[in-house]
């Protein structure tokens, strides 16, 4: 599932493509929104909150989308004549005279009053992609379940929004913390969230996605996706194991030497 750095980049791209020009296409191919046509409206920008996207419109409404596991937004030059885009995996088409944004395999879609956006996000913790994230609230949310494994807690979007399996692995590796250590056993949880924020924002702001700062192929992570390969710090083989409770388990990559149980 795309993580906070990806969603912030997508939000910026949608804003650049759609803002300040009227929509010539505003199709929402979603059962509960089938009667809505956004043609003629203008986007006033898209923002991300964790893994969620909020495209705000000049009529006071917001289109909320979530990519889930398989969703993408593709941005392409508007064709003349317009592409029919009849494929069943097309869930939304937002187009101006210059750019057309196509939402494929989107996993969630809502249309609400912009002033009611908070109702869509009320179950989420602080947005770690924010310029100045509320780390104290993230720590308080973490401390509410002290015996929960730290890796599982970091994946919980109600604790803090934005972290997925990549930044779970990369953050804990940097702090030499085993993913299955209890949350109460983490001495400086605020530092964990600060690291995740810093890594994701650097990736979002850089020329391409990277959790390490290195954009070369094969060097964009230290541990995630590197099972069976040597740890970049101690050369111990990286291992991966499921973390969480079925059916929501996710893969956690870690170094057994740098991050002992």
Description of the structure:
The protein is α+β, with helices and mostly antiparallel strands and 261 residues long. Helices cover 24% and strands 22% of the residues. The chain contains six helices and ten strands, in the order αββββββββαααααββ. The protein has a four-stranded antiparallel β-sheet, with helices on one face. Strand 6 and strand 7 form a beta hairpin. Helix 1 (4-18) runs parallel beside helix 6 (189-205) and helix 5 (165-174) packs across helix 6 (189-205). It is elongated and about 60 Å long. It starts with a helix and ends in a 7-residue tail after the last strand.
Largest sheet: 4 strands, antiparallel
- Shape category: elongated
Give the strand content.
15-25%
Order of helices and strands: HEEEEEEEEHHHHHEE
**Rg:** 20 Å
- Ends: how far apart? 27 Å
Order of strands in the sheet with most strands? 1-6-7-5
Count of helical regions: 6
Low-confidence segments:
none
Extended strand count: 10
Whole-number average pLDDT? Answer: 96
Question: Which class best fits the helix and strand makeup?
Answer: alpha+beta
Q: State the helical fraction.
A: 10-25%
